Amino acid sequence: MNKRILVSLIAIPLLGTTRQAEAATPQDRPNIILFLVDDMGWQDTSLPFWKEKTHYNEVYETPNMERLAHQGMMFTQAYASSISSPSRCSLYTGMNAGRHRVTNWTYPKNASTDRKSDVLELPDWNVNGICEVPGIEHTYQVTSMAQILKDNGYHTIHCGKAHWGALDTPGENPYHFGFEVNIAGHAGGGLASYLGEANFGNRTDGKPSPWFAVPGLDEYWGKDIFITEALTQKAMKALDKAQQYDQPFFLYMSHYAIHVPIDKDMRFYQKYIDKGLGEKEAAYAALIEGMDKSLGDIMDYLEKNNLADNTIILFMSDNGGLAAEPEWRDGVPHTQNSPLNSGKGSAYEGGVREPMIVSWPGKVQPQTKTDKYLIIEDFFPTILEMAGIKKYKTIQPVDGVSFMPLLTNTGDPSRGRSLYWNFPNLWGNTGPGIGATCTIRQGDWKLIYYYETGKKELFNIPDDIGEKNDLSATHPKLVKKLSKDLGKQLRKMEAQRPSFKATGKPCPWPDEI
Q: Are 348 and 341 a contacting pair, CB within 8 Å?
């Protein structure tokens, strides 16, 4: 094992959040549904998260997102990491990705998924993800949010994509994170097929199935059913069982949609062809509407079973919409999240800004909206607070800040707070803002630093949501201030950085250049 990682593992218990578990009584605790969409961009909805409707808001149809927003609060500046695994690990640990060091997507054990570089030597990051078991190489040992909920009386259900740990490590399996039910979750970060007719990618001829073949849905093999529908049916069956228990439930509804491949959901596909969209765009729009139907079906289930008044629904995406592969979408690459710049894998807003809604009957004022920013690790302390778990113990330190004051209109946790990203890696694609970067958002300002070149970009996000006007040359003092804050925080978290192959020396921190 890498010595640096070993030292970090030994030190983690000393750094952790130490609290004695204390929870509200069962009748006081709400049910909680965390509805996470894969690769959903900020504009992949008919619900506008900007000051005006855009072309995409007019094309796509997501009536149930609109319905959820009608009964809850929209967050117009909700952020995640630009890649799946870092976001999901932060979500369930409350840690910033710079700290847990799962900074790119995971799957093969002990193997990096980074794109090769002639210039940079990329860091020895935690390629095996997170897990609750000590001593596993290239992992960060954690106490997961699901484990804390389970230990405090919640019935915990996982449905869909997991993607916390590499294949053949403890972190590949949701059972190892405190989930009592696991439906179709494994190490894979995508899916081989959405189609039941194709067995969701599973082979039946004795040959090995592809990496992303979805497990655990055998009863749907060979049938005319889309995986989004199959997962929804399985989730509702799990909720039927949960109602037999005298305890609140936590459902992590983690869809594989709307990740590639862009298979055609024929329930909705023809509608978008009739609207004049090309085949790929129509298929993509159908994926979105199928995901939205799942949300509506679950909301209908809650109402039918008299659960709606005591159930919180949180809606979120794990990273920005994919925009770097021109062959799978009609139009110009990197524009599919417009007015945001770029998409998945990018430090620009298109890669990290997500659609987010929270509904909590009796607690959150319906038809409300906030432009205060937050980041995905904030879900950890917030959900535990929602569950009435006031004191708990974690192995890891928690970076997230509860956004409960925003929900209850009692405060602004974003005031005076900076958000941080560290991606010392190279994703598989290229494009605007895609590279080895670190970033800070402080108030209206956002600074991006590129490890390879030392370049810095400064944007005023409210004034320039598309990040077209780099103001670094005209605001040198602000660049220096933000660089200092960012560099200090990265060192505090023991974040990683690349090195130059030519010299073997590490790339400078942003405040060293």
A: yes
Mean pLDDT of the chain: 94
Query: Residues 258-302: pLDDT tens digits?
Result: 999 999 999 999 999 999 999 999 999 999 999 999 999 999 999
Q: Report d(CA 461, CA 469) in Å as an integer.
A: 10
Alpha carbons 158 and 146: distance in angstroms, whole number: 9
Per residue in 223-237, pLDDT (tens digit) is 999 999 999 999 999
Containing H/E element for 158? strand 155-160
Buried/exposed code over 329-363 (b: 16+ C-beta within 10 A; e: otherwise): beeebbbbbbbbbbbbbbbbbbbbbbbbbbbbeee
DSSP 186: -
Q: Which two tokens stand for residue 106?
A: 């995971």
Task: Judge whether 33 and 247 are in contact, CB under 8 Å.
Answer: no
Residue positions counted in the chain: 513
pTM over 0.90: yes
Q: What is the pLDDT of residues 36-78, one digit of tens each?
A: 999 999 999 999 999 999 999 999 999 999 999 999 999 999 9
Residue pair 346/329 in contact (Cβ under 8 Å)? The answer is no
Structure-block tokens of residue 51: 């000051």
Q: What does R_g of the chain's alpha carbons equal in angstroms?
A: 22
Helix axes 84-93, 379-386, angle to 10 degrees: 40
